[in-house]
Write a structure and sequence with these properties.
five-stranded antiparallel beta sheet, 3 helices, single chain, alpha+beta
Amino acid sequence: MTGTKGRSAIHGFFKTVWSNFAGYRAVATRANGQPAVAIYAQRHQHPEWRAQSLHVIEPADGGIASLTVYVGPLAAELFAAFSLPPMVHESWFETKA
């Protein structure tokens, strides 16, 4: 997603990428004092939810100035730094509500 700017460009990116999965779950967290979202993804053929990406948000003027996204193997490793498991089942999200 390097170099993707603007609301419509980011929307298009996520729409393309996220359609590869059966579903997503977001867990609010913070990274270096910034708001962040940990994303778990569920593949079509698997019931468990796996660490997918970590999105660090830089807010500004009531909007988002920048969005730094960590994906792939690095994302799963980063989840541990936030005391988040790399893989969960549906019932885990009920404890976060």
